[in-house]
Amino acid sequence: MITNVNHALSLRIQELLKQKNMTRYRLAMNSGVNHSTLKNIIHETVKDNLLSTTILIARGFDMTVSEFLDSPLFSEENLNI
What we know:
- This protein has a single domain (5-75), classed as Orthogonal Bundle (434 Repressor (Amino-terminal Domain)), CATH 1.10.260.
- α2 crosses α4 (51-60).
- The protein has five helices and no strands.
- It is globular, with a radius of gyration of 12 Å.
- By secondary structure, it is mostly helical.
């Protein structure tokens, strides 16, 4: 599966929301990232996601950014950069 970074980020957030039985609203509250920003990331309307936003999202899941990115979705052979 080859995907772009924005799609991988969207899939990872959706995967973790389901895994942790968490709503987007709860993630927004936990991370400090605006709910509409999260919605735009999930729907891939944001073209360039900031690393700082990704770090906040990881914190919202109570994870380090390394744990958040530790997914086959982000392996170089699966990304079209």
